[in-house]
Amino acid sequence: MPFEPSPRALLTAIALLILAPLAAYHNTFHVPFIFDDTQAIVENSTIRHLSALGEILSPPRDTGTTVNGRPLVNLTLALNYAFGGLDVRGYHAVNLAIHLLAGLVLFGVVRRSALTPALRPRFGPASLFLALSVALLWLLHPLQTESVTYVIQRAESLSALFVLLTFYAFLRSAECHVIRDTPSGKNLRFWRVAASLACLAGVATKEVAAVAPVLVFLFDRTFIAGSFRAAWQARSRFYFGLGTSWLLLSGLVFSATNRGGTAGFGVGVSAWDYALTQCRAILLYLRLALWPSPLVFDYGMDVEKSAVSVLPHFLALSALLGATLFALRRFPALGFLGAWFFVILAPTSSIVPITTQTMAEHRLYLPLAAICTFAVFASFLWIGQRALIALTVIAVAFGVLTERRNR
User: b/e string for 122-135 if b means 16 or more Cβ within 10 A?
Assistant: First the structure.
């Protein structure tokens, strides 16, 4: 592969991506179980016996807990319990490990994306620097603390890890030549199967992972195939494989029965009022991504009921959506980042009510990757390698703020 970094440079980048978040989260291992942790972990009888796999993969229903309809989350909790009971340190260690793995996979996704035909001429030589900067900012951003330090929100970070693994496997498959019964052909089949399995695991972790096939198809059109038709003609069987995740999702959503009456239609909050609330929420998320203060752990259950009061937010959001659609046609790479942000937020921040939290910072866990990517690539285009200094300062500031919020 052109622009392949030296082993020493690659290992240095990986070490930095591990050590910096460890420093930022070093003080989290004794944070006690809080809020939904009680129902999902302390009072969850299905995680008590690792040998009862069927029970583990059928989390408590009709309770509204975070594990409802999410068997893989429940399985990770059962593994934690098997090795350490209710010792909170083990749960935090797993959460941090998931976060680190997600950052490393994001690093791989960004680096290999910069080497795709559409981006290689401009960004290929700096692919390692760009990927390292994106992953480091994303790992250290204070907004991520809720998904890492709040134990049960591993549902968010683990589903994001599987979505990123789906993209990484797809990118590796796209680098293979389609030659049957050759090493390259075997690698192609391996990576396509890996992408499908990661996608299935994602929806078994959290429903938001269902957007992965849509985003991979859009990515293919934007950076590899050049058009939706070409992407479909080249990889239709692969997309059918990714689409099987929606069958699994349908069964899990049906079994969750509106998450114990806390999510879905007919749970006491109208789709219209929830949508009005999300107009304000999405713009808040964008502001916090750029200036993460003040951060709020629990925004409560309030909903907007007046269209007039959120009209400015609606107009601003409509402008951003319109700009994204325009960019998808004229500036596809930029449009893809906008689509990544909005599509991943859509399941939780559109019209399907979630009554326990009408706004929550952990929902920005994976969408934040698009904002970090835009900031890094834009700064590189603007000032070149000198962006390293500014991005390093920002990363250090994020790390300090993360450590303080965790404290």
Answer: ebbebbbbbbbbbb
Least confident range of 45-49, 145-149, 179-183, 379-383: 179-183
**Lookup result for tokens 């502001």:** 287
Q: Which two tokens stand for residue 306?
A: 């007046």
Read out DSSP for 16-49?
Answer: HHHHHHHHHTTT-TTPPP-TTHIIIIIT-GGGS-
Model pLDDT for residues 93-107, shown as the tens digit of each residue:
999 999 999 999 999
- Specify the residue for token string 């059928």: 58
Question: How far apart (Å, rounded) are the C-alpha atoms in residues 368 and 395?
Answer: 14
Supply the DSSP symbol for 249. H
Strands (E), 244-393: none
Question: Per 3-state DSSP, what percentage of the chain is helix, strand, and coil (rounded to 5)?
Answer: 70, 0, 25
pLDDT at 181 over 90: no
Contact between 312 and 342 under an 8 Å Cβ cutoff? The reply is no
Query: Of all residues in the chain, what percent carry a pLDDT higher than 70?
Result: 93
- CB contact at 8 A, 199 and 209: yes
Please report how the helices 88-113 and 7-24 are oriented relative to each other, as an axis angle in degrees rounded to 10.
Answer: 140
